[in-house]
Write a structure and sequence with these properties.
With 359 residues, the chain is an alpha+beta fold. The chain contains eleven helices and four strands; from the N terminus they run H-H-H-H-H-H-H-H-H-H-H-E-E-E-E.
Length: 359
C-alpha cells in the first residue's frame, strides 16, 4: 500500500509539473498579447487626439485637408490595435478594449474620413459652380449655361448630403457656408437672370405695343433683387434701362424730373423754407419736424447747389426712383453729392417721400 501511495503522489506531482510546463507558456502568451493590445490602444488614442484637432473649425479656423501624416499614422495605429485586440481570447477583456479603442480613436478616425469626403465633395460642387458662373455670365439663356446648371444641381443632390455628415455643428455649418450655400445661390442667380432677360424682352414688346408695363416692371425688379451677383445685376439693369428709354413717355418724365430738381436747387439756394418744404410728402420720415429741420439747415449752412445730372431708375404705379447728382459749393470748397430720391405722385404732383445714399 505504501508503494501504491508513493506512485499516486509521484504521478500527481509529475502531472502537476507537466501541466505547469504546458499551461504557463499559453498564459504568458495571452498576457503578452493583452499588454501589447493595451499599448496599441494607447498609441492609437494619442494619434487620434492629434487628428481630432485637424478636423475642428474652432481649431483650424478654416476648412482645409487634415495633415495626411497625422491621418495615416492614426489609421495605422487604429488598425494595428484592432488586429491585436482580435487575438485576445478573453471575450470580456476583448470587448472592453474594443470599446475603448472605438471611443478614443475609432470615432475620430471615422469622423476624419467623413471630413475628407466632405472636402472632396465640396470641391466638386465648387468646380461646377465656377463653370456655371463662367457660362451664365456669357449668356444666361445659352445651352451651355443650361447644361452647367443641371450638372451643378445634380452634384448638389448627390454630394451635398456628405456635407451634413461632418461632425460638429460649427464645422458642419462652415462646410455648408463654403460649398453648398454659394452653389445654391449660383443656381438662383442663373434662374433669376434667365427670367429677368425674358421679362426685359416682354417689357420691350409692351413698349412697342404701348400696353401697360407695371406688372412686368414689378416682377422684373423683384427678380433682379434676388440676383446676388453684382456683375450680372448691373448688366441686366443696363439692358432694362436701354429698353425703358425706348418709351417716349418715360423719357419725357425724365426731362420733367430734370426741371423738378433744378427748381428744387433754386429754392434751396434762395433758402426758401416754405418752397422746399412743399416738395416733400407727408410719408417722408419725421415729416412733422421737417420744416424746422430745413430752417435749421439753412441757418447753419451757406451751401449753393448746382444740378449736374438726373437719372430715373424706374417709374411704377405712381412711384419713381430718381438718382440726382449735384455740385455743392461752400466757400471755395466744391463737392459732388449723389442721392436717390423716392417720389410719390399725389394730386398729379411729385412729392419726395424718402432719400437714400446709393451704393
Amino acid at each position: 500500500m505504501e508503494n501504491t501511495m508513493k506512485k499516486v503522489i509521484t504521478y500527481s506531482l509529475a502531472l502537476g509539473i507537466f501541466s505547469s510546463v504546458i499551461l504557463a507558456p499559453v498564459a504568458n502568451v495571452q498576457a503578452a498579447s493583452l499588454t501589447k493590445a493595451e499599448a496599441l490602444v494607447q498609441r492609437a488614442e494619442k494619434e487620434a487626439t492629434a487628428l481630432k484637432w485637424q478636423i475642428s473649425i474652432e481649431h483650424t479656423r478654416s476648412i482645409k485637408t487634415p495633415d495626411m501624416k497625422v491621418f495615416n499614422s492614426t489609421k495605422s495605429a487604429y488598425l494595428a490595435a484592432q488586429k491585436e485586440i482580435s487575438s485576445i481570447s478573453d471575450s470580456a477583456k476583448r470587448a472592453e478594449l474594443e470599446k475603448k479603442l472605438e471611443e478614443t480613436a475609432g470615432i475620430h478616425y471615422k469622423r476624419s474620413m467623413g471630413y475628407v469626403d466632405a472636402i472632396t465633395s465640396g470641391n466638386k460642387i465648387q468646380k461646377l459652380a465656377n463653370t456655371l458662373q463662367q457660362e451664365y455670365r456669357k449668356d444666361p439663356s445659352s445651352k451651355l449655361t443650361e447644361t452647367a446648371f443641371h450638372a451643378l444641381s445634380e452634384e448638389i443632390r448627390k454630394q451635398g448630403k456628405l456635407l451634413y455628415r461632418v461632425y460638429g455643428k460649427s464645422t458642419r455649418e462652415a462646410f455648408i457656408a463654403q460649398y453648398k450655400s454659394p452653389a445654391e445661390q449660383m443656381l438662383l442667380n442663373v434662374k433669376s437672370a434667365k427670367l429677368a432677360k425674358g421679362l426685359i424682352t416682354k417689357l420691350d414688346q409692351a413698349i412697342q405695343k404701348k400696353t401697360k408695363q407695371d406688372s412686368i416692371l414689378n416682377e422684373l425688379f423683384l427678380t433682379l433683387e434676388s440676383i446676388k451677383d453684382d456683375t450680372m445685376y448691373y448688366r441686366l439693369f443696363e439692358e432694362y434701362s436701354k429698353v425703358m428709354r425706348k418709351d417716349i413717355n418715360f423719357v419725357a418724365q425724365e426731362k420733367d424730373f430734370n426741371i423738378y430738381f433744378g427748381q428744387m436747387n433754386q429754392l434751396i439756394n434762395k433758402k426758401d423754407v416754405t418752397g422746399v418744404f412743399s416738395l416733400y410728402g407727408k410719408d417722408f420720415p419725421d415729416y412733422e419736424f421737417l420744416k424746422e429741420d430745413i430752417q435749421t439747415s439753412f441757418n447753419e449752412n451757406d451751401t449753393k447747389f448746382e444740378l449736374v445730372n438726373v437719372y430715373v431708375y424706374s417709374i411704377i404705379s405712381g412711384y419713381a426712383y430718381v438718382e440726382v447728382e449735384d455740385l455743392a459749393t461752400t466757400g471755395n470748397k466744391k463737392e459732388s453729392i449723389l442721392n436717390v430720391y423716392l417720389l410719390k405722385k399725389e394730386n398729379k404732383e411729385w412729392k419726395i417721400v424718402d432719400i437714400f445714399t446709393p451704393y
